[in-house]
Amino acid sequence: MNSAHKTTQQASSKQAILVYLRKSGQANAQTLAEYLQISPQAIRRHLKDLEAEGLIAHLPQQNGLGRPQHVYQLSPLGEEQFPASYDDFALGLLNTLAETVGSEQMGSILQHQWQRKAQEYQSQLGSGSLRERVERLVELRQSEGYMAEYHPYCGELADPSATKPPEQYILIEHNCAIAQIAQTFPSVCGYELEMFAAALPDCQVERINWQVNGEHQCGYLIAKPSSKSV
Q1: Which of 16, 100, 121, 219 could crosslink 199 through cysteines, CB 3.0-4.6 Å?
Q2: What number is the average pLDDT over the span 192-212?
Q3: Which helix (H) or strand (E) segment is 11 a member of?
């Protein structure tokens, strides 16, 4: 293996570590080694380099009576490596608007923005199956920096008059592209929930995780009501 290829491979492994920690929150060296399918010695070298660069930090975690095990997580600098669609000017503009027009009008402005976004999403999602539309929604959110993914969800048959459980999916966003704005104006997250519901008008959308509340990711349950029994 030449030096250039080795350097590229190391950079790829380090990026994979950062992505894994962004998705999972924390992990130890053994878990990361198994995930990347490389030796524990190699993973420790990568972790040492990433920590030296200030991208990750470790915490001691006690397991039984043995020595504490290091658990790694992203540092604030590491968090900044992921896409964000906000900037200081946008946040400053929103703050100026809030001071100028008042909180009530500010809420109306933000709601109108999300309504426009919902219309854009709905037109781009089309009229295919729910799975196709959720898949397309994930692609759109990924392009905007949200690190989104989805999984089918098999819930219980909550409605006894239904012939089968509703078709359901979990939409997860590991990275919030407007995190700084959401921290300052948490109401935008409420409008975001409304936006998903408007973009999928034949579905029920429920928030199940919320980064603003200190959780590691934002999550939504998307359900298409099932048919009723006759």
Answers
A1: 121
A2: 88
A3: helix 3-24
